[in-house]
Design brief:
The chain is an alpha/beta fold and 410 residues long. The chain contains 17 helices and eight strands. The radius of gyration is 31 Å and the shape is elongated.
C-alpha cells in the first residue's frame, strides 16, 4: 500500500479503525525494510546473485521465518546461507540481522509488564496479542525463568554497608501449608528495606533461624543494641535472641490489642481502644507504666483470659517507652505496621495465585517479585529526624553517645 492509498483509506474508515489501519501500514513497511536488510547481509556474505564471490558462503534458498514488530510476530520469507566445511559438507549461517529482528525481547517485556500489572497467564494473549509465544504454557515458563531472577535480586543485596537500627519480623500466611516469615530493616536514617523471607509450614523457630542466618550472612549487623519489633510469636523472639542476644524487643501493640479484643466482650472494646491509644501516645517509661496498670485494672474483672494475655507481654509492651525517646517515633516503632502495610500490598500482587504448590519454588518466586515491587514504594519512617535519640538510647553502656543530628542529613 502506498502513502496515497493509505491517506485515502484513512478517510474511509472510522476513528477507531484508523489506528489499526495505520499500524498495519507501518508494520508492512517495517517488514519490507527487514527483508531488504536481510538481502543486503546475504549479498555481503555471498556476493550478488549474478556475480557470486565463489567463497565458502553460498545461497541456500528461502524458508518461512518470523520477526518481531511492536511486540507481535510477523511472518516473512527469509533467505538462507550455508558455509562449506573442509570435509565437503556445509553448515547453516545464522544471519545477524535475522537474529536481531526475531529477538523476542520486546514481546517478553510486554508479557512481563502484563503479569506485573495483575493479568493472569490465561489472559496475557488478550493483552499482549494473540501470537506465537503468548500461550499459557509459554507465559508460565517465561514467568518461572524471570521469577528466579527476582529471588536472586532480593537475596543478592549487600547489607554490610548500611547502618542498621531496627528489625521487624512478621509472618504472612500463603495457604494452609505455607507461611512466609518476612524481615524488614530500618537504617539509622529511617529508610526501610525488605531484607529477605523464608517459607515454612508455620512461624516455627527453625524457619526463623534460617531467615536470620541468611540475613546475617549477607552482612546485617548492628553497631549498637538492635531494636526489634515482633508480633508476639515466641518462635520469632527466641530465634532473634540467638542471633542478637542484646536486642531490645518491642511487642507490636496492634497485635496485642487485637488479641485482647478477641477475648473481650464487645461492650468493652471502646474502652480497650481508648487505653491502647493512650499507650501509643504517652511519652516516657513512667507514663507508659501508668497506662499499663490502668489496663490491668480494667481487664482484671472483665476477662481472665484477656487479663492474662496482657500480663504475658510483660515489659516488651513498653520497651520503646523505657528508652525515653520522643513520641514522634511511636507511630513507626510501636507496631509492625510498616511490615503489615507491605503485606497488604503483597497480597494484592499474590491475589491472582489460586493455589501455591509447596513441592515447587512457586511461592518463593511470587514472594520475591511481590516484595521487590512493594519495596519500590517505601518511604522514610515517620519521626526519622528523632532517630538520633534512639541510637543513643541503644548504645551499650561502655560505648560513647552519638550525636543525634547525624541522622538529620540526607
Amino acid at each position: 500500500m502506498s502513502e496515497c492509498n493509505l491517506f485515502g483509506m484513512l478517510g474511509q474508515v472510522s476513528g477507531s479503525e484508523a489506528g489499526e489501519v495505520f499500524r498495519g501500514f507501518v508494520r508492512g513497511h517495517v517488514r519490507e525494510l527487514v527483508c531488504r536488510v536481510l538481502a543486503e547481509e546475504v549479498n555481503q556474505l555471498c556476493g550478488p546473485k549474478h556475480q557470486p564471490t565463489g567463497g565458502d558462503d553460498f545461497r541456500s534458498g528461502n524458508s518461512p521465518g518470523r520477526i518481531q514488530i511492536e511486540g507481535k510476530r510477523e511472518e516473512i520469507i527469509r533467505p538462507r546461507v550455508r558455509r562449506r566445511r573442509s570435509d565437503g559438507g556445509s553448515d547453516e549461517v545464522l544471519l545477524r540481522s535475522y537474529q536481531s529482528a526475531s529477538d523476542p525481547g520486546e514481546l517478553e517485556a510486554s508479557i512481563l509488564a502484563a503479569l506485573k500489572a495483575g493479568v493472569s497467564t490465561r489472559e496475557v494473549a488478550g493483552v499482549a496479542g494473540e501470537t506465537h509465544g503468548t500461550s499459557r504454557s509459554n507465559v508460565s515458563r517465561l514467568w518461572q525463568n524471570v521469577g528466579h531472577q527476582f529471588v536472586d535480586e532480593l537475596r543478592g543485596r549487600e547489607l554490610s554497608q548500611t547502618d542498621w537500627l531496627v528489625l521487624m519480623l512478621d509472618g504472612l500466611v500463603l495457604s494452609k501449608d505455607q507461611t512466609a516469615v518476612v524481615a524488614i530493616g530500618i537504617d539509622s536514617a529511617g529508610h526501610k528495606q525488605v531484607l529477605d523471607f523464608e517459607l515454612g509450614s508455620s512461624e516455627n523457630k527453625e524457619v526463623c533461624q534460617d531467615l536470620l542466618r541468611r540475613v546475617t550472612a549477607r552482612g546485617f549487623v548492628c553497631k549498637r543494641r538492635l531494636f526489634a519489633v515482633l508480633d508476639g510469636s515466641d518462635a520469632l523472639k527466641n530465634a532473634l535472641l540467638e542471633f542478637f542476644p542484646e536486642a531490645v524487643i518491642q511487642r507490636c501493640l496492634v497485635h496485642k490489642e487485637r488479641n485482647i479484643k478477641a477475648k473481650l466482650s464487645k461492650r468493652h472494646w471502646g474502652e480497650l481502644a481508648r487505653l491502647f491509644k493512650r499507650l501509643r501516645e504517652v511519652q516516657g517509661a513512667g507514663a507508659a507504666v501508668e497506662v499499663v496498670q490502668e489496663l490491668e485494672r480494667f481487664l482484671k474483672d472483665k476477662s481472665a483470659t484477656a487479663y492474662n494475655s496482657l500480663l504475658e507481654a510483660g515489659s516488651d509492651l513498653t520497651a520503646l517507652h523505657q528508652l525515653n525517646v520522643p513520641s514522634t517515633l511511636h507511630r513507626s516503632l510501636l507496631s509492625t505496621n510498616a511490615i503489615e502495610s507491605s503485606f497488604r500490598n503483597t497480597r494484592r500482587k499474590l491475589g491472582r495465585v489460586t493455589r501455591f504448590r509447596p513441592e515447587t519454588d512457586q511461592a518463593s518466586r511470587w514472594m520475591a517479585f511481590s516484595l521487590l515491587e512493594v519495596g519500590k514504594g517505601f518511604r522514610r519512617i515517620a519521626g526519622h529526624n528523632d532517630l538520633g535519640t534512639l541510637m543513643n538510647a541503644l548504645q551499650r553502656p561502655s560505648e560513647p553517645t552519638e550525636v543525634p543530628s547525624a541522622t538529620k542529613t540526607g
